[in-house]
Structures are given as structure tokens and as C-alpha cells.
Amino acid sequence: MTTTDTARDLHGEVVHFLARQTHLMDGRDFEGFAATFTEDGEFSHTPGQLAATRAGIVAELVEFHRRFDDDPVVRRHWFNMVVLDPGEGGSWRATYYAYTVNTRPGGDQRIGPSCLVTDVLVRVGDELLTRSRHVRQDRLHFD
Amino acid sequence: MTTTDTARDLHGEVVHFLARQTHLMDGRDFEGFAATFTEDGEFSHTPGQLAATRAGIVAELVEFHRRFDDDPVVRRHWFNMVVLDPGEGGSWRATYYAYTVNTRPGGDQRIGPSCLVTDVLVRVGDELLTRSRHVRQDRLHFD
Amino acid sequence: MTTTDTARDLHGEVVHFLARQTHLMDGRDFEGFAATFTEDGEFSHTPGQLAATRAGIVAELVEFHRRFDDDPVVRRHWFNMVVLDPGEGGSWRATYYAYTVNTRPGGDQRIGPSCLVTDVLVRVGDELLTRSRHVRQDRLHFD
């Protein structure tokens, strides 16, 4: 980030950035989603799993979504309560709450697992990019 | 919008504008809600249905809410993941996720259908107004 | 607030402030949470109950959370649809929707009661503080 970035200025921009990411993910535009990460970006949505680089993130998402091949569902990621803290080297850490809202044929919409997400965001040129994302489901607190 | 509007500047203002609309709608101030649309505004919440003009939007909302005459419920619209894209003639398109949270006597709160909403927003003088709103329930993807 | 605060400028800052409060509350850092209130701050989450002063708010939260001593749960407060209106003496009133998302061992996440929250916010020096918070559950509309 530039030295002029402050959490106060940045919050709306980050919320907007996260919104655009969810629309890409939920629209299954995995290439577009991965392009919002740095080239060496990291994405972990499950303990022990870590996808690295944009190509690696795309591959992971394609693999992950195979489970929906025979399970038609509209998935929407909801993020909320985004807290920003300055990180190293001008980066920012965004910590926020998340769940999915899943709609299946003939069924009601259901909310998926509640999660805490921790991102490291950097500014490259004029745009925000995600350097890393770690998702932790709340139910894992009890394991 | 003025030429100085950018998505970065506008995002918080749009989120606030949408919040105020939901409070008007959920408080059943349909006149107040319709006044947040342009005079010739359009509002479609169901495929094949389209209300036009502020008076038409009020009439549609009065008619729609008749279903709750014998079904007391506190309804709250939750919008999230708002993405802004520039549209024609200085307008902006806001695309976002939505559901209602419905509380009935003696029952738990329940979440209503997950939706994708697409608005066209314009600035008239100093204020934002909705020129059109189209709501699409996710479960219609399976029809 | 200073005379230069406008709802347009303030909205993102308030949303961020509320997010940080929820992380403190949900992390059960009650001292940290209470420190986001003015020294004489008030917090009412149930009709007839009112905690006052930071020490009083901490005591109330400790007491309230005793119910979870034998009921392990990850709680997350979700706030949304934040509307700001100018109040007396440079204060701002924030009115918004809220629920908790509760995850228990072996169970799915569940959404808690839908609420309307009304805060009075003031700026002290450079920071926002909550002067008062009143939470009203929607199901009380039917009592």
C-alpha cells in the first residue's frame, strides 16, 4: 500500500474488492478470481490444504467444485464485519466473518459453515490484490 | 453521476443509500421507499412483474404486502457484496446479494430466498436515486 | 463529531468501527469492547436491562456469558444495513440490523434472533466511541 493509505480510507475499497471476488467465485469464474491474487498468492480454505500461485488456485477451485457436478446449487459467499490492520511492508490484514448461502432445487436456501477469514492484501500499482487467504471454519474450534 | 464519481468514492455512499432503502421498505414506508427511485423508476421483484413510476411502485408494494395482513411478521432485508460498475450516461450498476430475515410470533427467525439484485443508480442533483431494480431469486435458476 | 463529518464520509468508518467491536465481543475481550464506549457509556441488550460505565458493561458481559460456561459455542455478531442520522451535539445515531451466527460442537451453525440496534456515536479526539447502544429483538414486537 502507499503510505497515504489509512484504514479509514481503505475500508470501503476493501469491502468492494471482497464483493467483486465473491461474485467471481460464485459465478465460477476461477481465472478471474485467481487474477485478484498476486502471482504468488496463497489460498487455504481447509486445514492442511494450501494452493499457491494463480494457476494453483484455479486448479484447486476446479477440483473443489467437482463435488457440485451432480449437486446443482447456487452458492453465494457472504462476508461481513471486515477489520483492517496494518501489516508488514505496507500490506494490510483483513479479518472478517463469512458463510455461504446455498440454494438447491426444490429446497430452501441454507447457510453454510460460519468461518473466520484472514487475508493479506497488497496494493500493486493502483489495484488491491490478495497475497494470501486463510479460511477457518468455526466448527473446527471443537475438534 | 458526476464525472468525479469513482467506484472507490461511491461504494460507501451506495451501501448507505441501500441501507436507508431497506429501513423504509421494512418499516413499510412505501411512499418514502418509492421516493428513493427516479420519477420514472422501475422495480421488478418477480419475473414478469414490473412496477413503473413512484406511484406504481407504491401500488405494487401495497398489493404485495396484503399477503401479510393475516400473517404478522417483522421482515428485514439484508443486502451484501455490493459490486459497482459504470453504466451508460454516468449511471452506475450495483449488483448485490440479498435475502430477508423474517421473524414471526412464537417462531424463530428464518431467512427468505437468496436473491441477486441489479440496480441502476443515477445522481440527481446531490442525491442518489434508483432508476431500476431487478430482483432474481436464486431458486429460479432451476426452473 | 467535528463539523466536517458527513454521513457520506463517516459511513465506512462507522462500519469498520462496528466490525472491530464485534470481533472484540465475539473474542470475549470484554475490556476491549467496553473501551470502545465512552466512560459513561450505556449498553442495553434486553428490555429492562441497562449497563452503564465501562466497568458496568464489562460486569454485564461477564454475567451474560456465564450461560455459555457449559454450552461451548462460537458466536459471531453480524451487523448490516447501517443507517446514520445526525444527532444532538455533533453526535450520530447509527441504526442497523443484527443477528448472531452460533456454531456448536457437532451441530450446524444457527442464526440467532433478528434485532434492530440503535447506537449513539460520538467522536472523542480522533476516535469514534459509542455513547449508548440499545438492542431490540424483533420477536418482542409480538409480546
From TrEMBL, chains A, B, C:
What InterPro entries has UniProt attached to this entry?
NTF2-like_dom_sf, SnoaL-like
Top-rank taxon = Bacteria
Question: In this protein, which residues make up the domain named SnoaL-like?
Answer: 12-134
Q: What's this protein's name?
A: Hydroxylacyl-CoA dehydrogenase
Q: What is the lineage of its organism?
A: Bacteria, Bacillati, Actinomycetota, Actinomycetes, Pseudonocardiales
